[in-house]
């Protein structure tokens, strides 16, 4: 994958990690623009290549009454507005073959969710749009098995592929990051560490996923030290009212300090 091929990507010569960051779901235009404005300000200051992340719909929910979105086209148009307003690339996840072509009209990166990364038809449909593809490692998959997922993209004529580790199931209600998988998966594609989803506590009796946001900096620091190419995080100006995954989000007010620390670690790693 060539990061410089992403439309509107900035700071690619900074030798920094790149960042995929934004709310879990697009809840409305005002919230999306507010979050994007803050992240763009911080990443420009720190010279971090940045991609705005937001799900146009949430298909993998614990309960039937969980928030799924504000409408596909409405949310996708908001993603396009973020891109046009702040001149940054955008990423969203897709869940069905029909989503691929639709979302590709609005965003720069199509993300395959962890639970769906073995769905060959979905991965191939995404790859054939010509967009950059971000493959989430399944919670149930080994790092070595992601070689085959990445190959589905390249065999479809698309070299723009990256892999995101979002933790591995540890029992029924916890996730763990096995950092040994980072160098393994870097043999197949650039690797991103999804810090916030790796701290989820799924399968709670309430049907609402829990999380450990107090461990965000610990996992992120370890990822940079291990040599990840990118960091993925979900953030919100008030995680307590976020309509999806608020329990494991980073508060937007804490973003600059965290990224400043990660940039410092990256400089140290680069000097070794």
Automatic annotation (TrEMBL):
GO aspect biological process, one term: lipopolysaccharide biosynthetic process
UniProt pathway: Bacterial outer membrane biogenesis; lipopolysaccharide biosynthesis; Carbohydrate biosynthesis; 3-deoxy-D-manno-octulosonate biosynthesis; 3-deoxy-D-manno-octulosonate from D-ribulose 5-phosphate: step 2/3
GO function terms (MF aspect): 3-deoxy-8-phosphooctulonate synthase activity
Enzyme Commission no: 2.5.1.55
Major localization listed first in the record, in broad terms: cytoplasm
Keyword Transferase: yes
Superkingdom, taxonomy of origin: Bacteria
Domain DAHP synthetase I/KDSA span(s) in chain numbering: 8-265
Catalyzed chemical reaction(s): D-arabinose 5-phosphate + phosphoenolpyruvate + H2O = 3-deoxy-alpha-D-manno-2-octulosonate-8-phosphate + phosphate
Coiled-coil features, chain-numbered ranges: none
Keywords tagged on the record: Cytoplasm, Transferase
Cited Pfam families: DAHP_synth_1 (PF00793)
One cellular-component annotation, GO: cytoplasm
Compartments, as annotated in UniProt: Cytoplasm
Family note: Belongs to the KdsA family.
Name of the protein this chain belongs to: 3-deoxy-8-phosphooctulonate synthase
Native species: Saonia flava
């Amino acid at each position: 994958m060539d990061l410089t091929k992403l439309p509107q990507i900035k700071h690619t010569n900074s030798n920094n990690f790149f960042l995929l960051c934004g709310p879990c779901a697009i809840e409305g235009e005002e919230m999306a623009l507010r979050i994007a404005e803050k992240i763009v300000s911080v990443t420009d200051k720190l010279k971090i290549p940045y991609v705005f992340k937001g799900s146009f719909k949430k298909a993998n929910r614990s309960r039937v009454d969980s928030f799924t979105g504000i409408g596909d086209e409405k949310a996708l148009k908001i993603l396009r507005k973020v891109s046009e307003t702040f001149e940054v690339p955008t990423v969203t996840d897709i869940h069905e073959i029909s989503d691929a072509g639709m979302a590709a009209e609005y965003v720069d990166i199509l993300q395959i969710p962890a639970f769906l990364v073995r769905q060959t038809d979905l991965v191939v449909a995404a790859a054939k749009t010509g967009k950059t593809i971000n493959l989430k490692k399944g919670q149930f998959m080994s790092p070595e098995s992601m070689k085959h997922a990445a190959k589905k993209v390249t065999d479809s004529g698309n070299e723009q592929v990256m892999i995101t580790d979002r933790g591995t199931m540890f029992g029924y209600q916890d996730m763990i990051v096995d950092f040994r998988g980072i160098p393994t998966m870097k043999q197949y594609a650039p690797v991103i560490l999804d810090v916030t989803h790796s701290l989820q506590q799924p399968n709670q009796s309430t049907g609402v996923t829990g999380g450990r946001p107090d461990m965000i900096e610990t996992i992120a620091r370890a990822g940079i030290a291990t040599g990840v190419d990118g960091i993925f995080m979900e953030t919100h100006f008030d995680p307590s009212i976020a309509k999806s995954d608020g329990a494991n989000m980073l508060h937007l007010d804490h973003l600059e300090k965290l990224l400043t620390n990660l940039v410092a670690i990256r400089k140290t790693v680069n000097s070794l």
